[in-house]
Every structure is written in structure tokens, then in C-alpha cells.
Amino acid sequence: MAGAHAEARAIQVALKLGIFELLARGSQGDSGIAARLGTDPRATLLLANAMVALGLLEKHQGDYRLSAAADRYLVKSSPEYLGGMILFDEAIFPYWATLEDSIRSGASARAPDMFQSAPEDTERFIRAMDSLTRARGDAAWVADHLDLAGVRTIADLGGGPGTYLAAILRRHSKIEGAIWDLPATLKVTRRILTEREPGTMARIELVEVDYLKASLPGPVDAVFMSNIVHSEPETDNARLMAKCFDAIAPGGLIALKDHVMNRDLTDPRAGAIFSLYLLLTTRGRDYSFDEIAGWLGAAGFVDTKMHRLPNPPFSSSLVTARRP
Ligand SMILES: C[S@@+](CC[C@H](N)C(=O)[O-])C[C@H]1O[C@@H](n2cnc3c(N)ncnc32)[C@H](O)[C@@H]1O
Predict the structure, then answer these.
(1) Predicted model pTM
(2) Which residue, by CA, sits nearest to atom 1 of ligand 1?
(3) What is the CATH number of the domain that holds 12?
(4) What is the pLDDT of residues 291-313, one digit of tens each?
(5) 3-class secondary structure for the chain?
């Protein structure tokens, strides 16, 4: 466990350099890989061999080719491409090196701007969310399991790439949707949906909203949000639930997907580790069911329930509640 950063970093660098994309076009020896990537031959041999040891490449008589796992998750044209998330992890790697400072001071390692300050940061962040969700299958699970009986309009608050909303609308052909998000994010959302979901896009309205500063549009029959409360402090989350209450029609649904922790904030394991990432880059952390249910109840929601997603591959849960 204590050395796992070495493996993670090797995969991130191999992907960033384009080894997997290159080998998707055909097998190569180490000197061919180095020549095409413009890298040092001896160093490239070491990196390619490490990828073989990790099961991401195969080596036959000096030639490297993709393993089945790399073909499925590390090549851009694959529907389960995880590269967006890996490139994001690569970009934020330097912040992990300053974890000690954040633990001592309590301060984040970068301005907690939700990656809105530079267009390339926003693009990388939003593509990361999209790629993780598609590779792991979260959006398909939500579309199949979230009970949307009676819902005609749904908003995805902080919907980012639109991966969840597109999956929901594909599953429910009568529902109209909106993504409520920040302007820099919505530029990326529009690009992703135009590339991949031109049919579904006609049923999605993109609405610029800053959920911290303004009230929410509405009314809608349902508000869905994934990975939102974990980026915000407790008081802002309590206020956000009250804004959602006002934006949801009577009888409507709120559904919140996130790592939902036990009372001790130690389980699920992925959530406890992820809270350190949130310390480095946001103002939030992962919260317990009791904390989330407390904000919902104070806002006026009733019938609060938790639904665990199957683990593995998932580590998050869905919390649902109703406006009376
Ligand atoms: C961690 S991403 C989650 C994206 C998506 N819901 C998912 O789970 O894949 C957080 C999203 O919230 C949006 N967001 C952050 N702060 C916001 C704010 N103050 N108002 C509206 N949207 C915000 C970000 O732009 C981003 O799309």
C-alpha cells in the first residue's frame, strides 16, 4: 500500500506519453516506441516492461502489445476509456506531494475553484468525471435503479459532463432534463454531449447556475446530484438542500449520489481515502448518512432512504428523499 504511488505514477506517465494509443495501432519493439514517442530508448524499455509486469502490456519476442485490460480501458476509442480520469490524476499528482502541509495547516493545496479558473483545467476535470463514470458503469446503474415513476422533469445539479442525465434520459424517453452548472463547465458539457449524445441533447437544457450564490431554477419533479456535497462544507450543504427543496415541486424527489460514510467516517475505505483528495482540492470531505439526512430533514424533506450500490465495482451510495 505504501508504495502504490509508484505504480499509479508509472501508469499515468505511460498514458500521458501515448504508449497505449500507439500500441492500439499495432505492436512495436521498445526502440520503435521510443522513436515514435520521442523518448529515451533505455528509459522507455523500463516503462514498457513495468506496464507488462502490471498486466497492461504483453511482450512477445521483444514486441509489446496491449493486454485485454488496456484495450478496454486505456484506448480513447473504447466506450469504457478511463484515460480522462488517469490524466486528471496525473495533473493533480503534485498536490499529493504536499499532503503533509495540508494536514499541518488544514488548508487545501490549491485554490478550491472547482477547476473553473483555466479552460484546460475545466476540460480535464469534466472529462475525468465522464471517463470514470462510463468506465465503472455508475450512470447505467443509476438509470436502471433510480425510481422515477411520475417524474416528467429532472435537473442534474452540478451535472458536469452530463453522463448521468444522458443515461437517465435514454432510459426514460418521456422525461425532459436540465443540467444546472457553472459556465466554464457547461462549455465542456456542450462539447461532450454534441460529440456523443446528439439525439439526447435535444431533451437537455443547459442552465448556468452557481448553487452557492443564487437560488435554483425550477420547479422540477426531481433533482439528482452526484459528487456535489463532498466538495462543500457543512453549512453550504445545509443551505443547498433548502434551495433544492424550493426548486422541487410538491411530491417531488431528491436523489444524491456520493460516498456515504458510516458514523465514524472510516467506511467505505475508498471514501475515507478520497476525503484526503477533497482536503487537498476542495472545501469539503465525504459525509455520513446521518449528516446528509440531517440537512435533508432540516430542509423539509421526508422519507430519507439510503441505497448502497453493489461494491465492487462501486463504492458510493444513493440517498433519496421526497418533498411532501
Ligand atoms: C465532482 S464534479 C461532479 C460531476 C458529475 N455530477 C459527476 O458526478 O460525474 C462537480 C460538478 O459540480 C459543478 N459545480 C461545482 N461548484 C458549483 C457551483 N457553485 N454551482 C454549480 N455547479 C457547481 C462542477 O462544475 C462539476 O460539474
Answers:
(1) 0.96
(2) 227
(3) 1.10.10.10
(4) 999 999 999 999 999 999 999 99
(5) CCCHHHHHHHHHHHHHHCHHHHHHCCCEEHHHHHHHHCCCHHHHHHHHHHHHHCCCEEEECCEEEECHHHHHHCCCCCCCCCHHHHHHHHHHHHHHCCHHHHHHHCCCCCCCCCCCCCHHHHHHHHHHHHHHHHHHCHHHHHHHHCCCCCCCEEEEECCCCCHHHHHHHHHCCCCEEEEEECHHHHHHHHHHHHHHCHHHHCCEEEEECCCCCCCCCCCEEEEEEECCHHHCCHHHHHHHHHHHHHHEEEEEEEEEEECEECCCCCCCHHHHHHHHHHHHHCCCCCEEHHHHHHHHHHHCCEEEEEEECCCCCCCCEEEEEECC
